């Protein structure tokens, strides 16, 4: 029983130490000068609302086509995001992916 509790504790410790900026980078690290408020709102939605039902995945894990064609439409519908929220989170995901293409 002690080994099970130790394993569970270790998992929570590891999860607690994960850096959210690797999953959802801060807007100011993207090097953008426009739509900063919209993108920050989108990041906030991604971090706080998308994680109500599941863990947030690293945005760069999937290509933009998969985000636009499958992931975002399904999650926006399921979560009941308002149109402005949908626009913000989509803009944020797009900005992260576009920035990652520039870096690579």
What would a concise description of this structure say?
This protein is an all-alpha fold and 104 residues long. It has five helices and no strands. The chain has one domain.
Q: How many helices does DSSP assign? A: 5
Helicity range: 55-70%
**What general form does the structure show?**
globular
Query: What's the count of strands?
Result: 0
- As a percent range, the share of strand residues is under 5%
Number of domains: 1
- Unreliable stretches (pLDDT < 50, length at least 5) are 9-17
Care to describe what's here?
The protein has 104 residues and is mainly α. It has one domain. It is 67% helix and 0% strand. The relative contact order is 0.16.
Keywords:
104 residues; mainly alpha; single chain
SSE topology:
Layout: H1 2-17, H2 20-23, H3 36-48, H4 64-79, H5 83-103
Helix pairs in contact: 3-5, 4-5
């Amino acid at each position: 029983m002690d080994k099970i509790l130790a394993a569970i504790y270790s998992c929570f410790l590891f999860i607690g130490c994960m850096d959210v900026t690797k999953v959802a980078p801060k807007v100011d690290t993207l090097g953008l000068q426009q739509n900063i408020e919209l993108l920050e709102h989108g990041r906030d939605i991604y971090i706080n609302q998308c994680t109500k039902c599941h863990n947030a995945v690293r945005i760069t894990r999937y290509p933009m086509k998969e985000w636009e064609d499958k992931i975002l439409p399904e999650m926006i519908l399921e979560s009941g995001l308002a149109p402005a929220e949908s626009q913000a989170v989509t803009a944020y995901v797009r900005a992260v992916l576009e920035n990652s293409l520039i870096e690579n």
